[in-house]
Write a structure and sequence with these properties.
With about 350 residues, the protein is α/β, with parallel strands linked by helices. The chain has two domains: about 10-95, Arc Repressor Mutant, subunit A (Orthogonal Bundle), CATH 1.10.10.10; about 160-344, Vaccinia Virus protein VP39 (Rossmann fold, 3-Layer(aba) Sandwich). It has 18 helices and twelve strands. It has helices spanning about 10-20, 20-35, 35-40, 45-55, 60-70, 85-90, 100-105, 110-115, 120-125, 130-135, 135-145, 145-170, 185-195, 205-210, 215-220, 255-270, 290-305, 310-320; strands at about 45, 75, 80-85, 175-180, 200-205, 225-230, 245, 275-280, 280, 310, 325-330, 335-344. It has a seven-stranded mixed β-sheet with strand order 6-5-4-7-8-12-11, sandwiched between helices. The chain has a three-stranded antiparallel β-sheet with strand order 1-3-2. Helix 13 (about 185-195) links the parallel strand 4 and strand 5 (about 200-205). The longest helix has 25 residues, at about 145-170. It starts with 9 loop residues before the first helix and ends with a strand.
């Protein structure tokens, strides 16, 4: 194509789609905030019916609804009604694997403003979140319980999408006591214990976090086989397990703090015990199929105190410096992989 042509190239369309991606995320964020999918869960509604239910401007909402049709989130039903597509169903708050809270968390103002200042992270190596908000992301969640609730719901939603893949990818049957370090509300451990009735568990996290796990464990019918321990993994890790799990823990921290967590695990593990790190393992030579992993890595760069996604070689160095040998990496086909290690 000649340089004077006015026809956009396929490559130009890709760049423009990337540049406009922030618009897409904010439109989908507003759909989640306004609970559009919940309003449409019983069937299609017109723009006017939705505007009346939500209390927003009719014309503006109609334009947003048409945009969501173009994005594949909504579809036209008949002459004037809008309904949910299979993608849009995931924005409902009442379906298994709901991503409504995840969208609200990832595209909310706490993250949005941090990414406005991504240049600060690139220039200094420090999180732009701290630069914008004057505190770390963990301090922010603690001071804003409403946002912490969105965060916790988002993590629960992501765990729901990952759990089946993790259970299919890794054989938990040899282990009689599993310690989930930084295990949040216990959703992953509950699923493992539900599938392996001969196994007991220990869920370890900060006291205010593990207090949220009782209902999850009871609902799964495994509360009698799971002990809750309130602890800080920078200070100590419970002993007695023959499998230790760190799911979405190591990627929150720089190498020095990640090493401190790993060494605390190593300190209480026997020779035959195993460690699982459940985080994305980046490709050393990224391609288009690796984009999601690098989107998460950019999020860690902007939002966390030194957090990052790592490739296999980086995990290997980190583990070896903490007293472990990396045994193998299992790809789950989802947003996380399973890295197994043993003490040496």
């Amino acid at each position: 194509m000649s340089s004077g042509s006015s026809e956009p190239t396929k490559e130009a369309a890709v760049i423009l789609r990337m540049a406009f991606a922030f618009v897409t995320s904010q439109v989908v964020y507003q759909a989640a905030e306004l609970s559009l999918a919940d309003h449409l869960s019983s069937g299609g509604l017109s723009a006017r019916e939705l505007a009346d239910k939500i209390g927003v401007d009719l014309e503006a909402l109609e334009r947003v609804l048409e945009a969501l049709v173009a994005f594949g989130v909504l579809k036209h039903e008949g002459e004037a009604k809008f309904g949910l597509t299979a993608i849009g169903e995931l924005l409902r708050s009442d379906v298994p694997g709901s991503l409504r809270a995840t969208v609200r968390f990832l595209a909310g103002p706490w993250a949005w403003r941090a990414f406005e200042q991504l240049g600060h992270s690139i220039g200094t190596g420090n999180p732009s979140f701290d630069h914008v908000w004057g505190m770390s992301n963990f301090e922010y969640w603690e001071r804003h319980p409403d946002v912490l609730k969105i965060h916790d719901d988002a993590m629960t939603g992501l765990t729901a999408t990952e759990t089946a893949r993790i259970l299919a990818a890794y054989d938990f049957s040899p282990y009689r006591k599993i310690v989930d370090v930084g295990g949040g509300n216990g959703a992953l451990l509950a699923a493992i214990l539900d599938q392996h009735r001969q196994t007991d568990g220990i869920l370890a996290d900060l006291p205010h976090v593990v207090s949220l796990a009782t209902e999850v464990l009871q609902r799964a019918g495994v509360a009698d086989r799971c002990k809750l321990i309130g602890s800080d993994f920078f200070e100590r890790v419970p002993s007695g397990g023959n499998l230790y799990i760190l799911k979405h823990v190591i990627h929150n921290w720089d190498d020095a703090r990640a090493r401190a967590i790993l060494r605390n695990c190593h300190r209480v593990m026997g020779e035959s015990a195993r460690l699982l790190i459940i985080d994305r393992v980046l490709s050393a030579r990224p391609g288009l199929d690796d984009a999601m992993g690098y989107l998460v890595d950019m999020t860690m760069l902007a939002l966390t105190p030194g957090g990052r996604e790592r490739n296999k070689e980086q995990f290997q160095r980190l583990l070896e410096s903490s007293g472990f040998e990396l045994t193998h990496v299992i790809e789950t086909g989802g947003i996380s992989d399973v890295t197994e290690a043993r003490p040496h």
